[in-house]
Amino acid sequence: MVYVIDEENFEEEVLASKVPCIIEFTAGWCTFCDSMVPTIETLAEKFGDEVKFCLVNIDEQKKLRIKFAVAAVPYIVYVADGMQTPLFDEIVTADRLEERIRFVMGGGNAPTTRPL
Fold this sequence. Notes:
Structural class: alpha/beta
Strand content: 25-35%
Distance between the termini: 24 Å
Order of helices and strands: EHEHEHEEHE
């Protein structure tokens, strides 16, 4: 399952989540973002309850765009325990995204991790 996140449900769905969240920041006009949705859906099925996959439309959720300092889309971020770790700001394959998620989940060095 892929969750649609907005400013109203962000705290409940992401910050209070008991599992890590992967957020893809998208925009309605971004065809590259649209091409990432099947990848996100595939990984959501693969990870099951281990990770929560989310989408945020930056045009509709301006406060979240600012909070995460989104400069380009698609932008993919890992969020866990109130910390965010940028993963990609480009189109990536499911295998590459899965590899990066597992690396970060396993405690891999992520020097750009910062609090929300």
